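Need tokens for this chain, all 199 residues.
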Amino acid sequence: MEFTRTLSHVYASSSGMLRPSRASNPVVVRVPIARRAMRLSVRPSAVASFAAPNASSVGAAPQKADTVIDIPSSEAFEELLKANPEKLVVLMCKATGCRPCKAFRTKFVKLAAHYNEAIFCEILGDRSESTRNLMRSLKVRATPTFVFFRGGENIHMHSGINGEKMIDALKVAVKPEEAGFCEEVKFAASLLASEEETH
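Here are the structure tokens for all 199 residues:
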């Protein structure tokens, strides 16, 4: 069984809208129904959100496939904080077109993998109204902005990809009894210093 679709030649205008050039010469395309496929446009960050823990598993040790949890809404972030009151939570606030955010993400993922007792997460501020409101409530003025939480309280906040600021924040935020305190800070210093030399 086949279906018939009538198409006219289309050209993209500068405004991004498609307009038929000539409706008098339609092109008939016959496509077997079995071969039709639907093409979906999916952002990688949207796929990563499926790997993030849902509300029922937030209290348990988070499953970190990417080691960085994608936060889809302000409600999900509040649940994460409530479920992990004793853990250090490091939130990276970013935007879609932010080049420094993209450049620093690899370092952020490495830090998250190394600081396995802390929860590293990221939020895309221009994803939805909920994420915009969360970034407004945190008073985020620039991206990337890193906000550190412990016990549901904001204990540190800084903007930019300056390695020294991140090291200073980690020195204050990581408790001595957590995952090799001295080694953690040395690792962060070496990671951030080596990455800055390449830029």
